Amino acid sequence: GDEMKAAMALATQITSAAPRSVQMTKAAIHRSYELAQMRTALLEALETDILIEADESPERLEFNRIRKEQGLKAALAWRDARA
User: Fold this and answer.
1) Is the residue at 22 inside a domain?
2) How far apart (Å, rounded) are the C-alpha atoms in residues 77 and 46?
3) What is the pLDDT of residue 27?
4) Which of 24, 53, 70, 80 could form a disulfide with 74, with the two C-beta atoms 3.0–4.6 Å apart?
5) How far apart (Å, rounded) are the C-alpha atoms in residues 12 and 15?
6) Is there a contact between 22 and 14 (Cβ–Cβ < 8 Å)?
7) Count of domains observed in the chain
8) How far apart, in whole angstroms, are the C-alpha atoms of residue 41 and residue 77?
9) What is the pLDDT, as a whole number, of residue 59?
């Protein structure tokens, strides 16, 4: 049908282009997909970070208290001693 005709027209157009141009275009398309996946991964990481920062569990509150009063090194030592 019409979809097959459109696909064949596109295939003919692609095959008439210089092979190096087709390779470069294909590489650019692949990079675009990789960047889109990276963006999705970064957004997921940001959402997770927001959830972690919003956590008000007793452990998180104690960690923050120690960090504010004694510094990050002391808070990390407290955290590591619990593991």
Assistant:
1) yes
2) 26
3) 95
4) 70
5) 5
6) yes
7) 1
8) 30
9) 94
- Within a domain: residue 9? no
Complete DSSP assignment for the chain: -HHHHHHHHHHHHHHHS-HHHHHHHHHHHHHHHHHHHHHHHHHHHHHHHHHHHH---HHHHHHHHHHHHH-HHHHHHHHHHH-
Q: Tell me the residue range of the domain where 66 lies.
A: 18-82
Phi-psi region of 62 (alpha: psi -120 to 50; beta: other; left: phi over 0): alpha
Q: Is residue 55 part of a domain?
A: yes
User: How far, CA to CA in Å, does 38 sit from each of 24, 27, 42?
Assistant: 21, 16, 6
For 50-71, how does the pLDDT look when each residue is reduced to its tens digit (9 = 90+)?
A: 998 899 999 999 999 999 999 9
Q: How far apart are CA 78 and CA 22, in angstroms?
A: 57
Q: In Å, how far from its chain's centre is CA 35? A: 8
Sign of CA dihedral 56, 60, 61, 67: negative
